[in-house]
TrEMBL record:
One of its GO terms (molecular function) is dephospho-CoA kinase activity. Gene3D superfamilies: P-loop containing nucleotide triphosphate hydrolases. ATP binds at A12, S13, G14, K15, T16, T17. The keyword Kinase applies. It is an enzyme of class 2 (transferase). Belongs to the CoaE family. HAMAP family: Dephospho_CoA_kinase (MF_00376). Catalyzes the phosphorylation of the 3'-hydroxyl group of dephosphocoenzyme A to form coenzyme A. PANTHER family: BIFUNCTIONAL COENZYME A SYNTHASE-RELATED, DEPHOSPHO-COA KINASE-RELATED. This is Dephospho-CoA kinase. It catalyses: 3'-dephospho-CoA + ATP = ADP + CoA + H(+). Keywords: ATP-binding, Coenzyme A biosynthesis, Cytoplasm, Kinase, Nucleotide-binding, Transferase. InterPro entries: Depp_CoAkinase (IPR001977), P-loop_NTPase (IPR027417).
Length: 206
């Protein structure tokens, strides 16, 4: 089993940018929970079959794929449906995450989980890396990227674990208040540390 670095952070913190830099510069494999969450509800999957059985075939688009907008609207107005959806999909997502991690061939693997804190998924990692950003910068990035109002951006930020909760579980922190150029020196130092930790564990000394 490879050494697993759990990468997390709030919306617009720069998780994708950080993960991409690890991959581009050091060829580190990435397992992305958001991508897997889409994969487990693709046509001919147990996840999509369960959703259709629960909500009916009207939950599908004409091409047979999931109508995500309609599903979001349904669970937004029905907390018990949201709970059912989470209880149905989360085990599938965790199982696929574990499968992809086990298949990794790089010196360590980045497990990118936006809701790592909220989902209590630290147990799937050897080390938690938090991409940290000041709240005001996070809000302005969210407004610019997603074309939403400050109020909407604030609602999204407040719906997630707060900065203190994420930092409380962090083993390592990347500060991303500036531009991408400030990230690479931090990533280079962390890469060396993760490689060493991976080797130590393989040698049975961690």
């Amino acid at each position: 089993m490879p050494y697993v670095v759990g990468l997390t952070g709030g919306i617009a913190s720069g998780k994708t940018t950080v993960a991409d830099l690890f991959h581009q510069h050091f060829n580190i494999e990435i397992v992305d929970a958001d991508i897997i969450a889409r994969q487990v509800v693709e046509p001919n999957t147990a996840g999509l079959d369960a959703i259709v059985e629960k909500f009916g075939s009207n939950i599908l688009l004409p091409d047979g794929t999931l109508d995500r907008r309609q599903l979001r609207e349904r669970i937004f107005s029905a907390p018990h449906d949201k709970q059912w959806l989470n209880e149905t999909l989360h085990p599938l997502i965790r199982a696929e995450m574990a499968h992809q991690v086990a298949q990794s061939q790089s010196s360590y693997v980045l497990l990118v989980v936006p809701l790592l804190v909220e989902g209590g998924l630290q147990s799937m990692t050897d080390c938690v890396l938090v991409v940290d950003v000041d709240k005001e910068i996070q809000l302005s990035r969210t407004m610019e990227r997603d074309k939403v109002s400050r109020e909407q951006a604030l609602n999204i930020v407040n719906s997630q674990a707060n900065r203190q909760e994420r930092l409380a579980i962090a083993d390592e922190i990347i500060k991303n208040n500036s531009n991408t150029d400030s990230l690479l020196p931090q990533i280079e130092a962390l890469h060396a540390k993760f490689v060493a930790s991976s080797k130590n564990r393989q040698q049975g000394t961690l």
